[in-house]
TrEMBL record:
Position of the signal peptide: 1-28
Keyword set includes Signal: yes
Domain YtkA-like: 29-114
Keyword annotations of the record: Signal
InterPro entries linked: YtkA-like_dom (IPR032693)
Organism: Labrys miyagiensis
Name listed for the protein in its UniProt record: YtkA-like domain-containing protein
Length: 135
């Protein structure tokens, strides 16, 4: 059997390349993703809508199909963390945009806390975003 050094080198290079691409995707973590408020202010009321975008920081592209399993809205930035409001997810027509309807009874600073799982990621993406409810 003949052993060709260039064939062996090519085989080693291909194996190394496949391992490095697998390794680099395994290095992606929760810190590679970010929730962003679409608007820093929303009108207070029973049907206030707060929208966020989930972005992959590495590519800048929106991330669709996240499973958001925890959401909470409260007035912690105003020193009233116990003042929480009911919140529910509502449909969005844009990829990577997640919308919530909340009953914001008071004007002031509010915090939206989210926790999400993404396909292929072991870590949970968590975020706390502050916005203002206006009259």
């Amino acid at each position: 059997m003949f052993d060709f050094p260039s064939t062996r080198a090519l085989s080693v290079a291909l194996v190394a390349l496949s391992l490095s691409s697998s390794f680099s995707s395994a290095l992606a973590g929760a810190g590679d993703y970010e929730f962003q408020l679409l608007q820093p202010e929303t009108q207070a009321g029973n049907d206030a809508v707060v929208a966020v975008r989930l972005v992959d920081r590495r590519s800048g592209k929106p991330v669709s199909d996240a499973v958001i399993f925890a959401s909470r809205i409260d007035m912690a930035p105003a020193g009233m963390a116990g003042m929480a409001a009911p919140i529910e997810a509502i449909p969005s027509t844009e990829p990577g945009i997640y919308r919530y309807k909340a009953r914001l009874a008071m004007v002031g600073d509010w915090r939206l806390s989210l926790a999400a799982k993404l396909q292929g990621e072991a870590e949970t993406v968590q975020s706390q975003l502050t916005f203002k409810a206006t009259p």
